[in-house]
């Protein structure tokens, strides 16, 4: 049983917008991971099961990190999100990448893909 104070700390961390990724596998199972928590992975027969298992694994992962005094990474910025029911994608650019068409008049006739390839920072 986890100390209630420690459990509350873990719950607060998990409320933050960490990126949870669930990927279907060739064998029909689903693989889950939290991008910011190295080694925090799960596998299940369904996407929902992978998410549930990932939550349990993340609690244990965070407990180990806290007990050993290791730093827990903040959520990484998200630049896009896919909304499956609406079949749409939202792309967000940090303010540091915004450029005015006045600065780059050639962008007025270019696609978003061109902008991303040419002007967005590459990691």
First and last CA, distance: 41 Å
Mean pLDDT: 78
| Largest sheet, spatial ordering of strands | 1-2-3
Derived structural class: alpha+beta
Number of helices in the DSSP assignment: 3
- Computed over alpha carbons, the radius of gyration is 19 Å
- Write down the CATH topology of the largest domain: Double Stranded RNA Binding Domain
- Quaternary structure: single chain
Low-confidence segments, given as residue ranges, are none
Structure in words:
There is one protein chain. Helix content is 33%, strand content 18%. With 123 residues, the protein is α+β, with helices and mostly antiparallel strands. The strands form two sheets. The chain has a three-stranded antiparallel β-sheet with strand order 1-2-3. Strand 1 (20-24) and strand 2 form a beta hairpin.
Structural features:
123 residues; Double Stranded RNA Binding Domain; 3-stranded antiparallel β-sheet; two-stranded antiparallel sheet; 3 helices
Quick overview of this protein structure:
This protein has helices at residues 4-14, 47-67, 112-119; strands spanning 20-24, 30-34, 41-44, 80-83, 88-91. The protein is an alpha+beta fold and 123 residues long.
List the topology elements.
Elements: H1 4-14, E1 20-24, E2 30-34, E3 41-44, H2 47-67, E4 80-83, E5 88-91, H3 112-119
Antiparallel strand pairs: 1-2, 2-3, 4-5
